[in-house]
Design brief:
Helices cover about 40% and strands about 0% of the residues. It is mainly alpha-helical. It is rod-shaped, with a radius of gyration of 29 Å.
Length: about 55
C-alpha cells in the first residue's frame, strides 16, 4: 500500500462527507461566469459616419 492510498481503518471510522452547493447557487455561478466571459454583442445596425451626402 502506498502512502497516498487510504487505510481501511480510516475509511470505516470516518464518515464520508461531501461539501455541497445548492443547485441554485451552482446555476447562478454558471450564469455569472457566462456573463463575464462573453464579449459584448455587436449592434444590429451600425450608423455610418456622415462624410459624403448620397447622390440624388
Amino acid at each position: 500500500m502506498s502512502a497516498t492510498e487510504p487505510q481501511a481503518s480510516q475509511d470505516q471510522s470516518r464518515p464520508f462527507v461531501l461539501a455541497g452547493v445548492s443547485m441554485r447557487d451552482l446555476l447562478a455561478s454558471c450564469a455569472a461566469a457566462r456573463a463575464v466571459s462573453t464579449p459584448p454583442r455587436v449592434p444590429d445596425h451600425v450608423e455610418r459616419s456622415v462624410g459624403h451626402p448620397k447622390a440624388a
